[in-house]
Amino acid sequence: MNAQPDVSVIVLNWNGKQYLETCLSSLLKQNYPSFEIIFVDNGSTDGSMEFVNNKFPGVIALKHRVNLGFSQGVNSGIRIAKGKYIATINNDAEADPAWISELVRVMDRDSNIGSCASKMLRYYNRNIIDSAGTLVYQNGSAYDRGSLEIDAGQYDSQEEIFGACAGAALYRKEMLDEIGLFDEVYFAYLEDVDISFRMHLFGWKCIFVPDAVVYHMHSATSKQASTFKLFYLERNKLWNMWKYYSIPLLISQIPYTNIFYFRYISLFFKKIVKQEIINEEPVLNNSFISVVFAVLRAKFFAYIKFPHVLMQRWKLRRKGADMSLVEAWIIKGYKK
How many CB atoms lie within 10 A of CB 197? Predict the structure, then answer.
C-alpha cells in the first residue's frame, strides 16, 4: 500500500469481526500496486476494532462510537481517502486478487465513467450470481441484476448499466466531488441507487465489469428478510422516486407503489388461512403484524423527511438537472 494511492478501498463494519479475516486478507492479496484500505467501524461491540489493529496494522482504521449507518459511515471514509478512485466492499465479502485491477482498467479508459460494478457471486455457492449491477423499477423497487441465477456466462459482457451495488463497486472521486456523496439521511439500503440516479443526471456512466469478481455472503450483517431491512427499503424507495422521477412518471406509478402491499396481504392469507407453504418470499418468516408495522413506519418516516427530499430535488433542478434523463433506465411496471 502506498503513501499516495490511486485507489482507496473502504470497508464498513458493524459487529462483523467473524468476516474480517476473509475480507481484509483478500484485499491484501490484490495484484494492483497502488491502493490503501480504510476500515470504518460503526460502533462495534464485538472487538472488531481491536482485531483489525492487531492483525492488520497497515490498514487505516477509523472508529465511530455509534452505528452511523452505511451512508454516513462510508462518507467518513471517503473524506479521509487519498485515492482518485473510491472502492467500496462489504465486510462479508472476499475479493478476487484481480478485483481492483479489473475495475481500474475499465475506469481508466474513459473519463466519462463515474462508477464500475463488479460481478458478485454467492460466497457459499460460487456458481450463483449475487449481483451483476442494479436495476430500478417504476414502483421504486431496486434489484440486483441476475440475482440467484446460475452463472452460465450470461453476464460476461462489459456493458453500460443503471448502477453498481455498493457492496463491491468503484467510484471516481471527481464524480463524487461533483454530484455529492451518499445521502446520509438514508442510513442503510438504496443509497447506492440514489447515487446512481444522480450520476446519470450529471452525465456520468456506470459500466459492469464481469472480470472484477467478489464473493459475497449476502446480508450477513443485517438479515435478508428482517423487518429492519424492509423498513429502510420501503422508506428509501419513496425518497428515490420523489427526488428523481418526473412529475408524469410519479403520477403514473401510484398504482405500482402500493401493489406490493396487497401482494403481502394475499401471501399472508395463503400462509395463515390456507396453510400453504410459501418459499418465494422470505419476509413471510416474520409475523403479519411486524411486516404491516414496518411498512406503515416506513411511509410515516418517509413523509417526515419530505421537505428534505424536495429541497434535494430543487437543488438538482437548480443545477440544470433534467429528470427525464433517468427515465430510460427505469423499468416500467414492478417486479415481485
Answer: 25
